[in-house]
């Protein structure tokens, strides 16, 4: 991209200030800035001016789940259908691992965090070992895609190589980087991280599939005949991945998606709850739930909004491709963002000074035709590590691993 083309693009969206320091830059820095401008979609910034409209919710109603008891009754049927799909090469795994372990006190990729007690055991290792269980059961090496970010791509690739992919076949693992979105100040102007770099942040877990397609990985999915993608977060060390029962139940349901859910510990638990919104599958966050919704019960006394999502989904490739044409809601988070001011001086924010834009994975559910909420036993499949101590922490995850017979 030339300077003239970059300026034209920026003027069209009112962001020409991003070239304010262009004449001060070295040739390499100029080229890097122009390349970043060329690859940046500034249209996402429009969400800042229509935040209230984007945040509006439709009519929310309850959605029941396929319960643990119901799954048990048809377990063999589900397993048979799921194993067949896996053995036919129709299922892959997608690990969303773009985060850093900042809250755990480490500067590296979150998946590289050591949760071991008597020996090193890494979060990445636990997830790969869970996938290996299914590979052994099915006799099939399942394609694994690993989504990194600009912040941790190189160290993540290195970590897998350094640990021999934790026993997985290297040629079955593909890394790709998550797309980034520009950050903006409260005046709607995109921020500069440095004179030669726009301030950006990952575009949220809802951008995983569009990031895959932009990385050119759609060709692998098509060439290998992959029809189902099991997508999961990096922090839950107990979750089962591509387990045949979940895959089979989703396929046999006729839905284009499946979502693993847990029964809430109580009406006030801080988890997103699967539900219906204007007749489509959706997730309502705990902050959006009214007291009436939290405490609503059916005739048998069961809570109507009782199943929380654990960010482990099975999506139809066909449905996801169709959904690319639909605009997902853009969520705005006000954050403290390191940047420079109009004079090029470094800004160290002590209070939120700008916005980051994110897409949420559960918003993809609305674009697909039907979703099967699939209940799993909390103690067996839900051990997220978000904090070093307290709730959803290293401490609680270690205890749950011990209860499930996993040696750490």
Kindly describe this structure:
The protein has 408 residues and is of the alpha+beta class. It has 14 helices and 19 strands. It has a seven-stranded mixed sheet, sandwiched between helices. Strands 1-12-13 form a three-stranded antiparallel sheet, with no helix packed on it. Strand 3, helix 7 and strand 4 form a beta-alpha-beta unit. The termini are far apart.
What's the layout of helices and strands?
Blueprint: H1 3-12, H2 27-39, H3 51-55, E1 60-62, H4 68-73, H5 75-87, E2 91-96, H6 123-138, E3 144-148, H7 153-162, E4 173-177, E5 180-182, E6 184-185, E7 192-194, E8 197-198, E9 200-202, H8 208-214, H9 218-223, E10 228-233, H10 244-253, E11 257-263, E12 273-277, E13 280-284, H11 291-295, E14 307-316, H12 317-323, E15 331-335, E16 339-340, E17 346-347, E18 354-358, E19 371-375, H13 378-381, H14 394-403
Parallel strand pairs: 2-3, 2-10, 3-4, 11-19
Antiparallel strand pairs: 1-12, 5-9, 6-18, 7-8, 10-14, 11-14, 12-13, 15-18, 16-17
Short overview:
The chain is an alpha+beta fold. The protein is built from 14 helices and 19 strands.
The number of E-state strands comes to 19
Strand order of the largest sheet: 4-3-2-10-14-11-19
**Helix count from the secondary structure assignment:** 14
What portion of residues is helical? 25-40%
Structural class: alpha+beta
Give average pLDDT, whole number: 94
How much of the sequence lies in strands comes to 15-25%
